[in-house]
């Protein structure tokens, strides 16, 4: 694996997001879908069905949606419908009042847990032949159908994950761009602790996670 391939692979995995990823995936599915509709959904008439894997259902049901400060799938979907973001970071910018309007009446959303593991989110708009499926990665659009037309974005295949031997080779190369990406990610993930070097902070974080 080359440093360029490693950077591309890492960049596909490092996605900035406010809040937990399962609710964000639900919101992202709704946001992506309604962006392609000819007009904004009307809270009085909009209807949707959400089919979601057991793992995602469990995690999204207990996570709090930022700004709304409310747990659950309905809040995530409502935030997605009210989001102004075009990226996976859907909770970073949304119309709070509009989201609360969708939350007042839960009848518009039918939630169907399905016996699947991992990440699977499918949103269907009844009667419109319009739907979206996220699967695998939280931001990966597996299928997008708009009024019966397949509009699935075509992504360039990612490199295969490196073997342990390739990881060591990459580390020995000390590629400046790869190291800059890693440092940026680490410093975002590790909170500053006075009196400890960055290396010590990283070790403390790893130790804490490994010990639960």
Strand content is 15-25%
Distance from first to last alpha carbon: 33 Å
Order of helices and strands: HHEHEEHHEEEEEHHH
How many distinct beta strands? 8
Helix content: 40-55%
Number of helices: 8
Give the overall silhouette: globular
The major sheet is characterized as:
6 strands, mixed
Strand order of the largest sheet: 4-1-5-6-7-8
Give the class-level CATH name of the largest domain: Alpha Beta
CATH topology of the largest domain: 60s Ribosomal Protein L30, Chain: A
Q: Judging by the overall fold, what is the CATH architecture of the largest domain?
A: 2-Layer Sandwich
Round the Cα radius of gyration to an integer and report it. Answer: 20 Å
Structural features, described:
The chain contains 8 helices and 8 strands, in the order ααβαββααβββββααα. It is an alpha+beta fold and 212 residues long. The protein folds into 2 domains: 3-13 and 159-210, no CATH class; 21-150, 60s Ribosomal Protein L30, Chain: A, CATH 3.30.1330. The strands form 2 sheets. Strands 4-1-5-6-7-8 form a 6-stranded mixed sheet. Strand 7 and strand 8 form a beta hairpin. Helix 2 (21-35) packs parallel to helix 4. The longest helix is centred in the N-terminal third of the chain and has 15 residues, at 21-35. It starts with a helix and ends with a helix. 27% of the residues are buried. The model has no long low-confidence stretch (mean pLDDT 87).
Supply the key terms:
212 residues; alpha+beta; 60s Ribosomal Protein L30, Chain: A; six-stranded mixed beta sheet; two-stranded antiparallel sheet; 8 helices
């Amino acid at each position: 694996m080359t440093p360029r391939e490693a950077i591309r692979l890492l960049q596909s995995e490092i996605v900035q997001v406010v809040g937990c990823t399962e609710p964000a995936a639900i919101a992202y599915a709704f946001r992506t879908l309604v962006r392609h509709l000819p007009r904004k959904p009307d809270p009085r008439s909009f209807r949707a069905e959400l089919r979601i894997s057991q793992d995602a259902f469990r995690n999204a049901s207990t996570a709090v949606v930022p700004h709304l400060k409310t747990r659950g799938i309905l809040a995530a979907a409502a935030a997605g419908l009210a989001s102004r973001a075009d990226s996976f970071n859907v909770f970073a910018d949304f119309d709070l009042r509009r989201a609360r309007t969708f939350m007042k009446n839960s009848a518009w959303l039918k939630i169907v847990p399905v016996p699947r593991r991992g990440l699977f989110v499918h949103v269907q708009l009844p009667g419109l032949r319009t739907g979206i499926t996220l699967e695998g990665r939280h931001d990966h659009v597996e299928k997008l159908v708009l009024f019966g037309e397949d509009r699935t974005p075509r992504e360039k295949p990612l490199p295969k994950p490196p073997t342990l031997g390739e990881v060591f080779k990459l580390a020995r190369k000390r590629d400046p761009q790869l190291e800059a990406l890693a440092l940026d990610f680490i410093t975002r993930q590790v909170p500053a602790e006075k009196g400890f070097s960055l290396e010590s902070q990283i070790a403390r974080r790893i130790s804490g996670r490994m010990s639960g």
